[in-house]
Design goal:
single chain, Helix Hairpins, two-stranded antiparallel ribbon, about 15% strand, Prefoldin subunit 5, coiled coil, Prefoldin, chaperone, PFD_alpha_archaea
Amino acid sequence: MAAAEKVDLGSLSAQQLSQVKKQLDDEVQHLSTSYQNLRAAQQKFRDCVASIQQGVAESVRDKPLLVPLTSSLYVPGKLADTAHVLVDVGTGFYVEKTTDDAKGFYAGKVEELGTNIKELENIVNGKANNLRVVEEVLRQKVLAGGPQQGGQEGGGAG
């Protein structure tokens, strides 16, 4: 990332401040959406750990269950091996792992996403603080600039 450029907000016009505010609004919105997506992904990995712990047990062996082929298509099946599972490692690739390795894999993903979420949370908070500062400066400029602008316009006409 490039180093942040510092700008004296007081030197910007109300129109420029409005543009900066809009840009910050868009950034905060985008980052907030990304934050929610990371939280959802983290929860999915937690669900995977829980599924392995609860669904791949010796007590479930040879009992009928539904196997997901897609998000909406399931086929009947039976759990034949409680020691190994197929793990989706991304982009449609699956790797056979022991249940302990699979839990470790998903736990690592949860932890990695947790770190990313904290970093993104700090960025969102920083952008939100910047947005509040810009809004305050813009509000002050509009309040202080209203009568001045009217006087300038009147002076230019006469």
